[in-house]
Amino acid sequence: MEPISLSAALASFTDRWSPRIVTTVNDYDVRVAKVEGEHVWHAHDDTDEFFLVLEGELHIALREAAGERTVVLPKGSVFTVPRGTEHKPYAPGPTAILVLEPTGTLTVGDRHDDVPDHVDATTGHALT
Ligand code: NI
What we know:
The protein has one helix and ten strands.
């Protein structure tokens, strides 16, 4: 194991909404992704999902018991989507995020709307 530069990891690929696994912590993946535009409404039934914004700005639309709202995460912000909560990330411009979630977690969750072509339904890719 060697230290991993997040900037070098992010520079190693160009795909949007297609996370790379940079390391693992116990049963969790630490993933980084480049994102821009809309993801897809989805929910993870069995796990929370942690977001850290490395560059740019991430919006996450949430469907909660009280109704729908959107949280805005500028660079340097963290947010955890609770398990079972439908959510749809959106980035108004080029953005880089770090996501922490259990190994094997699908990017589109256990329930989701139709997945558009620009969204990669994956459990994360190895860095190359
Ligand atoms: Ni999610």
